[in-house]
Amino acid sequence: MTLKKKISLGSLAALLVGLTILTIVRWEVWFGNPPEAPYVPKAAPTRVLLTFGNDGEMSRNVSWMCDTVVHKSHLELLPEGGDQPICVKADGEVFESRSGKAAYYVARLTQLQDGRCYYYRAVTNGKASPWYEFSVSNPEVKKDVSFLFFGDIQDSINGVTNRYIREACLQHYSSDFVVFGGDLAERPTDAYWAESFRSIDGIAQSLPVLCVTGNHEYLKYPIRKLERRFSLVFSYFLKSMVGENQVYTLRYGDVQLFLLDSNREWPFLAQQARWLKQQLGESTARWKVVVLHHPIYSAKSKSNNLFQRWAFADLLNANVDLVLQGHEHAYARMTQWEDGKRVPPVYTVSHCSPKFYRIHFDERFDRYGTGRQIYQHIAVHGDTLSMNAYDARTGKLYDRVDVVKGFHDNPTIIDRAKGIPEILDFTPQPGNKKDAAFAERIREYKAQKGLKP
Predict the structure, then answer these.
(1) Domain ranges of the chain
(2) What are the CA-CA distances from residue 22 to residues 16, 25, 28 (Å)?
(3) What pLDDT score does 12 carry?
(4) Helical H runs in 288-376?
(5) Percent of the chain at pLDDT above 70?
(6) Between 20 and 341, where is the model more confident?
(7) Is 153-415 assigned to CATH 3.30.230.10?
(8) Pairing assessment for the beta strands 331-338 and 367-369 based on DSSP bridges
(9) What percent of the chain clears pLDDT 90, i.e. is strictly above it?
């Protein structure tokens, strides 16, 4: 054997040994799933959730969980001023997780009337949930559209994020619906699903809730696995999935939303890109909004999320007005430039989680925020789409961008947050080198932009 071959084989052996050691060390991080405690669902309907259906902007689905076997179930629906409730049959399915099982139900409502208030309750095996209520407005008549967006919730057990969500909904009481950007649950266990419902209780029964998948909803294996209970809760996915991809689109007035599953491996992302291209090509909506979990342009590193960028960036940059993202537990807003002016889409990253991540600062982004939970209120009025970001703790406006479509729908982006200071809160832990480096990056960024130290 020649010396050159010996060196090559030795290098290959060293590489394999290194990869083996790295895999052993990182196995739990990459592929480990926390155990799920045994659980038994209640014998009466719980975890009731209102969302959109698959038959247009006036359709609604109601899902709930009850018992461990499928019983005869229905939804009692009473229009305001009505005498007798209408019984809407519910479909049931048993889902078995790693440490328990539960029956999930969905009732689909398709003949709702504009301007009506409805009272409803879920009934399974003769046992009923409390009465809830929701209202329906036809966006074609109403014209104006607004909704709330929350990035990662991912709260700890008995956390405080539910207070932020409730206060945001009270502040923006005219919102038509709520969208979550994935990682609604910390992990796919019943205890964390219970916490997620505690976070949205009182809202999820009265406002339609949409949610994309986040990486924390997945079980970590060499090929990730999403439990079916996610689709049984957010039941529009049951009829909208493309293969194994959790995708969904909703036309609501002159706004069309496209929900993507950015957690998947490349073949799945490519399949979603084909779906998205077709849906965008068929859309006649004036405003197009895409929601996905992983940022197309990462605030943590330029090399992050490359597969997602390769799959979706060209489509988004050519066709979309706003891209709402989570995952990175900070706030960042980005627009691109063309011929000396900002052009859509507006890309944002936000979260309402108690966890905060270190980010990197670079010239691609217009604005950042650290150490704060941020949610967004999106409002469409006439020729203007306004993206408004708020500090979840204080309710104060933190960022605002307007996309204005004038003659021939040529867009103009107006940054209305120039007078609002950027907040970059961070307290490094003594002796932590990564914290110290991040604190230095913040200092350099503030100096570069002329911000107060």
Answers:
(1) 46-135, 153-415
(2) 10, 5, 11
(3) 73
(4) 306-319
(5) 94
(6) 341
(7) no
(8) antiparallel
(9) 79
The tokens for 260 are 């993507």
- Position 29 scores a pLDDT of 55
How much is the pLDDT for 9?
67
> Where in 125-269 does DSSP place strands (E)?
127-128, 132-135, 145-150, 177-180, 209-211, 218-219, 225-226, 248-252, 255-259
Q: Which two tokens stand for residue 264?
A: 């998947």
* CA distances from residue 335 to 33, 321, 402, 413, 442 in whole angstroms, order as listed: 37, 10, 12, 9, 21
- H-helix or E-strand containing 131? none
Alpha carbons 260 and 287: distance in angstroms, whole number: 17
Instruction: Tell which CATH architecture fits domain 46-135.
Output: Sandwich (2.60)
The overall pTM is greater than 0.90: yes
Radius of gyration over every alpha carbon of the chain, rounded to an integer in angstroms = 23
Alpha carbons 405 and 286: distance in angstroms, whole number: 9
> Quick check: helix, strand or coil at residue 46?
strand
- For the segment 227-231, the average pLDDT, to the nearest whole number, is 96
